[in-house]
Amino acid sequence: MTTKIFVDTNIFIDVFTANPDFVSESKAVLELCEQNIIEGYTTASAITDIFYLIRKLLHDKEKAYQVLGHILNIIKVLPVTNEDVLNACAEHAYDFEDCLQATCAKANHCSAIVTRDEKGFKDFDITLLSPSALVDQYKPK
Length: 141
Known about the structure:
Elements: E1 3-7, H1 9-16, H2 23-34, E2 38-43, H3 44-58, H4 61-74, E3 75-78, H5 82-91, H6 96-107, E4 112-114, H7 118-121, E5 128-129, H8 131-137
Parallel strand pairs: 1-2, 1-4, 2-3, 4-5
Helix pairs in contact: 1-2, 1-3, 2-8, 3-4, 5-6
């Protein structure tokens, strides 16, 4: 059975902005998803954020849709239910978006969240992995 991992938005941003400090590890996370070694998940709100950023970077709506199509071939979008939103609201978290993502990840049985922003998720009782920690788990030994 393939491991279900929630992929935080910053992983995508690293790849599409070619962030020199993080691009290789973040790209490796998405490659694990593309190779079906892990199942990668995100939320619809993250997808809208990603599309906006890609379109802004590329200055080309059609190219942004092509990139988004590729993402959607390797990442699945989790449902966000009314119950998820209510549960996240009840937390009164400092970062509501991270709280809602963690709530969705847990509700959909993701085993971990891969993120560079571990402090944003530390209070939500779900395993957190840096991109390098996740990639290291799947390196041939």
